Amino acid sequence: MKKGDRDGDDSPSHVSQPSSSPSTEDGVRDYTSKASMQDTAAQLLEEYARAGKCVLVRAGYLDLLGNNWSCTVVGDGWVDTVVVRGAEDSRKSEVKVVRMDAKEWEEGVPR
Hints:
Elements: E1 28-33, H1 37-51, E2 54-61, E3 68-75, E4 78-86, E5 93-101, H2 102-108
Antiparallel strand pairs: 1-5, 2-3, 3-4, 4-5
């Protein structure tokens, strides 16, 4: 996604941000893309590929109608789960990125 492709957000993409600061304290980032769901999904995958140092675990549609798309990407000490939903205006899409750090997993595992 190019700078400024997201409504009201001129910051660099979430992919280039350090894994320890995914833009909110809870690791969730929501935004509306000015591109269709298919274009947004392709742009996200291209961003992860350009950023490198991560592996695409899975990607695909979540429903039979193709209205929801998701991918899971694993990096060094982090996992991103991305969901892209078609918006009412088919020229836009809603994006949610949830990032979990290895520290969060370690804290949640009983010993």
